[in-house]
Specification:
By secondary structure, this protein is an alpha/beta fold. About 25% of the residues lie in helices and about 25% in strands. The protein has a 6-stranded mixed beta sheet with strand order 4-5-1-6-7-8, with helices on both faces. The chain has a two-stranded antiparallel sheet with strand order 2-3. α4 links the parallel β7 and β8. The longest helix is centred in the last third of the chain and has 21 residues. The chain is globular.
Length: about 200
């Protein structure tokens, strides 16, 4: 299925002068592929494979029994914000066996949006730790699943041990407006950090 925003505009206009790399990360089956596909203005690149019996002991399907595919390299999408600025969205696979790929993807990244699931918040620590290790600033977006419990932001912040300045938002990765708001929260945070850096 193509992106909700996919169009015939494959090439960027000549006016684009700035490109920013944004990571969309999180644990296995948290909605990264859906998020990138929802926002991408081009048909997103997806590297999904069917889950197999061989991976059953590795990929924990607890809470997501309907999942039938998994990303094995990355998702890639593009979102033009203005005549001058374009965002490249890179979705990373969620399993720990792809840690080396996560590290490679952090190079040149302006920031990251960490998707989280309230049913499995503890599984977010590995990716957040990696971002912190590589000094990649991030915001956290709790992806709303229909059967997931809802908690106050303060409890989620405490559970994830977030710094006070780290943005925390909720989103529905299937919804373009909701996903856009999550991305805006990250971009505004990155702009604030850049403005505070010494000249």
């Amino acid at each position: 299925m193509g992106s909700a925003l996919a169009s015939d505009h494959v090439y960027l206009p000549d006016t684009v002068s700035t490109a920013a790399k944004i990571l969309v990360v999180g644990h296995f089956a948290v909605g990264k592929t859906t998020f990138v596909g929802t926002l991408s203005e081009i048909r997103p690149l997806r590297t999904e494979e069917t889950l197999s019996e061989a991976g059953a002991h590795i990929d924990d399907l607890a809470g997501v029994p309907q999942k039938t595919t998994t990303t094995v390299a990355m998702d890639f999408g593009r979102l033009t914000l203005s005549e001058e600025l374009v965002l490249y969205l890179f979705g990373a696979p969620g399993q720990k066996r792809f840690t080396r790929l996560w590290r490679d993807m952090t190079h040149g990244a302006l920031g990251a949006l960490v998707l989280a699931d309230t049913r499995r918040l503890d599984q977010s620590f590995d990716v957040m730790g990696l971002l912190e290790e590589h000094a990649v600033p991030y915001a956290v977006a709790v992806n709303r699943f229909d059967d997931a419990p809802s908690y106050p932001d303060a409890e989620i912040r405490e559970a994830l041990d977030l710094l006070p300045e780290t943005p925390l938002v909720t989103c529905d990765a299937r919804d373009r407006i909701s996903s856009t708001h999550a991305l805006i929260a990250l971009v505004q945070y990155l702009q604030t950090r850049l403005a505070q850096e010494p000249m």
